[in-house]
Input
Amino acid sequence: MALPISSAQVENPTPTWVDCWASEDQISEEMYEFCNEHHSIAPEKRLYEIRWVFLNVSQDKIPNDWVDIQLNNLNAVFSKWNFRFQTSERVVIEDAVAESNDYHQKWTLREILPDLRAQLGLSDEEEQALIDLKEQLAERHVSQRSLDELTLDEEFNTAGAFRLASRARSEDITVVIRPNLDAGGKSGGPNDEFQSADGGAVELNTNLLSSGALTTLPHEMGHYFGLSHTHVLGFNTPEAKFDFNNLWSRMEFGGDALRRAVGEDYSQPFGEQWIPYSASDQEVEEFNQLIPESLVWPVWRLTYHGDHQDFDNLAEFIAAGEAGEMIYRKNFQRNYVLEGQAPEWWGNNCIWNDLTQQGQCRYHEPMQVFDYNDSTIQDVMFFENGTSSNLMSYITPDYDNVSSRNGLSSEQIDKMRFGANTPTRLLLRNHCLGTSLCDGWPEQTDPSGEEEIVEESDNEPTEDDSTPVIEMIAAIIAILLIIPGWAVALLAIFAYFVRKSRKEN
Ligand SMILES: [Zn+2]
Output
């Protein structure tokens, strides 16, 4: 495989990793050189294009600068990890067929052709439109079996419809902005089905067009590249026990894929997991097995044991779990039970404190407050002296023109890079490769430092986002807690209303 490196410029557009992987046998010399130079080792820099698809939004409801502001903020958050984004196209479908708040509402492919034509430029004639669609999907390496199954009578719900269209543009990231989304944003992570006709997409609620909120898109992009939340829901105790056995039972391949990455004794760093384009089918399958199993990698930094002691490494975390030692989560949401005793606090245990302008995490009763100065919190939950929070949390510090929910632990950065290196996400075209577009970017930060990239996705397909209400109430609680007499009664009232509103999800 060690051929001389060539700087040959390949035809525009340049081949993606999957283009190279799929055309091993009938590859031109020029393409072979490109593939070998750019898809044999992991890229240091990534530049992706975004297609913004507005469903049921009228053109005049989209502020002229909205896309650019969202994009600038996204780049301000992600460029420190050498991920950047630019716009490929904007599609506004003012009267989309497939846009509903009912997950079960479905349309046939025949019925959604107007939506697909608007996005993909298919023929006006039905049968020819189907042929055009299949051609576009085939060019992007959808398997013959998936293509054969696609008929004009096949049914799609809203997400199914825009994900089919996004698969026909799999070289770009599709961001769908629509009014019926039941959250501020939503996104699934990579899966092992990179040759299916089902594409991925980030969804945003059209209320962001008027609110201008900046935290949602970067957070969803974290999910898109496989990152999970820092927190889980549903604890009624002031500390959250971590269910190690449940985690371990979700290791679909008995930990084999994880051990291939970090060694039999779990002692090696996760590093940059990568698969060259020349890999065999078997190697691709084994690489994809790491998608569910890499879930565990960021988790050991998001948990503690004993008296708020960090684990030193993954091996220590797994040894503790297997020995049945108690493990706790650093970040969780505590639900207040109305009929129970009024707690000192409830809701997200990690909050932005408006009074101190610092993030903090609360545990125990009586309450103990841990802030950035605590080693378990520093560069895991909060960053930059406590003024910015974890991208994958629901903690929203104040921000000026750039979202300050923007940090990731080094393990999450590992996982995110792995997500970008899965074949599902290698369908995307990295515009840094074979171009000079990324030449001027600053060098990457030292991997031994605190800020690095990576995390992976579990197979949970979608995640919703927090509503700003939760953060607002958390801030109010923080204030109320310093007025002891009022706190308990008002907390109960707030708890009631928030629980009521959260039942919607
Ligand atoms: Zn989320």
Observations:
- The chain is about 30% helix and 15% strand.
- Residues 219, 223, 229, 463, 465 surround zinc ion (CB under 6 Å).
